[in-house]
Amino acid sequence: MRKQLSNWGNYPALDCEEAAFSVEEQLQQYVDTHEHIIARGNGRCYGDASLSEHSISTLRYDKVLAFDEAEGVFECQSGITLDQVLDITVPKGWFLPVTPGTKFITIGGAVASDVHGKNHHAEGSFSNHIISMRVLTGKGLLTCSPSQETDLFWATCGGMGLTGVISTVKFRLKKIETAYIKQKQIKAKNLDEIIRLFDEHKHYTYSMAWIDCLQKGDSFGRSILIVGEHAKPYELNEKQRAAPLKLPMKGKLTVPFNLPGFVLNNFTVKTFNALYYAKNYKRVIENVVPYEPFFYPLDAIHHWNRGYGKDGFVQYQFVLPLAQKDGLTAILRRIGEKGWGSFLAVLKVFGHQDDLISFPMEGYTLALDFPVRKGLFAFLDELDALVLEYGGRLYLSKDARMQQEVFWNSYPNARKFESIVQAYNPGGKFRSVQSDRLHFDYGSNS
Amino acid sequence: MPTVLILGAGSDMAVAIARKYASAGYSIQLAARNPAQLHALERDLKIRHQVTATSHAFDALHFDSHPSFYQSLPVQPDVVISVFGYLGDQEKGQSDWQEASRILHTNYTGAVSILNVAAEAMAARNSGTIIGISSVAGDRGRMSNYLYGSAKAGFTAYLSGLRNRLFHAGVHVMTVQPGFVDTQMTQHLTLPPLLTAKPAEVANDIFKAAGKKKNVLYTKWFWRYIMLIITSVPEFMFKKLKL
């Protein structure tokens, strides 16, 4: 069916042919008879990475193939969403090894973006937990793993679907004793303090911070650090302990339509940040909460992206090497001066990672939303220049607009990745609006 | 636990129905032309819902095989749901009898053939439920799909007669009249989002209505009223429309 497709940022919106499949044979047949294909899961990447002339939806390809409850090994088709995986595994005492801030992404998307979570510094990104997977490449259906077809494996993890359509994935889960998180929230008055707090709390499995980008002077970079561990049964109250693995009730709020753009203006953003900061009236709060509000606070509001109006928004996420704290200060200052940022800015310190094309590297990552407006892209180009200057890079899953040079100059293995893509996807049968925008050379199909 | 047999288990609607019944604890029998393609769903149902699930070869067009297919099921089902259907290509079917007969035989003759077998078995033990997925397209013939529509009209009439007969034998028959549903069958059509149901919504409606022993279910519910309007347009006007 031909329709307007856009991903979570509602920008860009493009006229695409969308098809679906529920068994592998249908996928194979589709791939054999079409060109310019990109797999698309639940549309939760922000920009144009899963848009193409032919977007093939994996959502009906969502079967669980195996779940070893003793060993915690899960195998499924790529279109299943994380919330479904959790519904199945949590009652049996197993959790996702890595989860981003929404559970409404597919497993295929988790691999293609090589997603990271609050535990990156301790447990790495999603690819770190994959046992093996099957990918329908331009050269047929291939099985790959960290020890088999390793080129294909590492070019598929974080490879934005350019090696082909991920068919099935087998990965390790993480043992839990309860469905709860023991969390601690600590207020930091400024950027120096939050960076120090990250370091002091790096033994926690999970950590991230909300940062207020609009503060100046002494309060520049004021934040709330949130750290947590999977709670032990004895840490629960009596009612929780009765059913420690029972799933919490599901939230039902939704933003039913696009709000007018002015709803999220500078005034409301500032007010929100002030209220958010003030709600933690004590410097340190410790409590036990269900895993959902801890990992997925925004999932409780369906379609929160509509809050930015019909023009949409881009989420800007970069990472800078650990040594570049000055760079973080410089970029935050620039964002603060401009005052166009969102009420959502997430700061996290990544652990070491040095994979072929995955986004994370040891250092600081900051993510915030910018509603699309006149002059925004020129401003983001300025930020890109700063990110490059300090040796950082941007997250492809959030990207909708970066200039090609920024990508090629910031990912050190970009050309090697491109040559592997050429080997498995000769001629560029699989390509997205994003990969075309970045001017990938797919080689020739002969 | 009761057992439900799903005929035409490869379709999106069938997957949703199977998951709905499995979530309520039913044992699931999946039947489709190519059972190898059902194995992923079979495993999925077992893992998600800890139920028994089996896959079986069934071809709606092989009428002669229907009695032995039904006899060979490991357990006689308590609920039989006929989900299979073939929309086909109306224009092609107008001049190509192969296509036309495939549309008619899949949607009507094949369904009658297998449900006759199920009906006899259920009548003999005075219990059971038969659910037939027909279509609002059967409520009035339109130029864009009257081959499919006429077969579904026949199927709807069959179900109503079967309901009348089996009521006296303690067997319930429910007719399901879905409107637009977002499935692979309709993938090539541009459907109005507000009028289009997700397969899971249809499955929920079916499960709930079957529990209440509803006779005719329109899903989504407003299709009853849409079809009321469409069927009340006088024929001399209706024939001039291009629907």
From TrEMBL, chain A:
InterPro entries named in the record:
FAD-bd_PCMH (IPR016166), FAD-bd_PCMH-like_sf (IPR036318), FAD-bd_PCMH_sub2 (IPR016169), FAD_lactone_oxidase-like (IPR010031), Oxid_FAD_bind_N (IPR006094)
Lineage, top-rank taxon, reads: Bacteria
Q: Name one Pfam family in it.
A: FAD_binding_4
Q: What protein name is recorded for this chain?
A: FAD-binding oxidoreductase
Q: Which organism is it from?
A: Chitinophaga chungangae
Domain FAD-binding PCMH-type: where? Answer: 11-176
Automatic annotation (TrEMBL), chain B:
Q: Does the keyword Ribonucleoprotein apply?
A: no
Q: Record's Gene3D superfamilies?
A: NAD(P)-binding Rossmann-like Domain
Query: Which keywords annotate this record?
Result: Oxidoreductase
Top-level taxon of origin: Bacteria
* InterPro entries (alphabetical): NAD(P)-bd_dom_sf, SDR_fam
Q: Which family does it belong to?
A: Belongs to the short-chain dehydrogenases/reductases (SDR) family.
Its protein name is SDR family oxidoreductase
The species this protein was found in? Chitinophaga chungangae
